[in-house]
Write a structure and sequence with these properties.
TIM Barrel; 40% helix; alpha/beta
Length: 253
């Protein structure tokens, strides 16, 4: 198996809990951070600006993405410039469309050509990757975030699509492909194998890194022990049942 130290892909921590983010900042495996409004709501954040500025006092050199939360493109643009002003390591997340199915390509083009570092998010289709790449300025850093995990949720193999997406990005030296919303530890190695630049990983998946390369027979025994211990802790029992009917004697003629 490939060693973790041999991975070429960059692992970004996906979350919005400051304590966890700062702990991961000390982990050499973590090369960046991403957030979104859903993760912030889950973490109980109510003051967007205060949270972001507070985090940025500690995370000053790793790239970190904060998302706009408007649905109107003019307001998205205003928010994007404000968010971008918070630090040189900040990337502004722009959804590939708004809720009215209107593509954000013109906005992406304007922001990128004005030097705003973008993370174009919520991409699931290959034509979206193509159109976003066409809108980005080739000399301005950007991430193209394809939700490979959600693609897999639909029963489709995301690997061919992600490989094709890399082809679109090949002419953009400053743009990198993100394998977003992974579902399992294996996705890190799948993404690395095709040459994907970045994968965003939640805390639940990061905890599974201790399992990497684990002996499968040992893991099997641990699984059996888990079932046995949980059954005992639950007090399960099956009482022996004795039939009240006496067995019939053979009939002789």
């Amino acid at each position: 198996m490939k060693s973790l130290s041999d991975l070429k892909i960059k692992v970004f921590a996906d979350g919005a809990e400051k304590r966890t983010m700062l702990e991961l900042l000390q982990n050499p495996l973590i090369k960046g951070f991403t957030t979104n409004p859903t993760l912030m709501r889950k973490a109980g954040i109510t003051d967007y600006t205060s949270f972001a500025r507070d985090v940025l006092t500690e995370i000053r050199h790793h790239p970190i993405s904060f998302e706009v939360f408007a649905d109107d493109f003019d307001e998205m643009e205003r928010q994007a410039h404000q968010i971008a002003s918070w630090g040189d390591n900040v990337f502004v997340k722009i959804p590939v469309t708004n809720t009215r199915k209107e593509p954000a390509l013109d906005l992406i083009c304007r922001l990128s050509h004005r030097g705003v570092q973008l993370n174009v998010t919520a991409i699931l289709a290959l034509d979206q990757v193509r159109d976003v790449c066409s809108a980005l300025h080739k000399d301005v850093p950007a991430y193209v975030s394809v939700f490979a995990g959600r693609i897999a949720d639909t029963g489709r193999d995301p690997v061919p699509l992600m490989s094709a997406a890399l082809e679109f990005l090949s002419e953009h030296e400053c743009a990198e492909l993100i394998w977003a919303s992974p579902r399992e530890l294996l996705n890190i190695f799948q993404a690395d194998a095709i040459g994907c630049h970045v994968i965003t990983v939640t805390g639940d998946i990061l905890k599974k890194l201790s399992l990497y390369g684990k002996d499968l027979r040992e893991y099997s025994l641990e699984t059996v022990s888990m079932f046995y211990d949980d059954a005992r802790a639950s007090g399960f029992s099956l009482k022996k049942q004795v039939s009240e009917e006496r067995p019939k004697e053979p009939v002789t003629v």
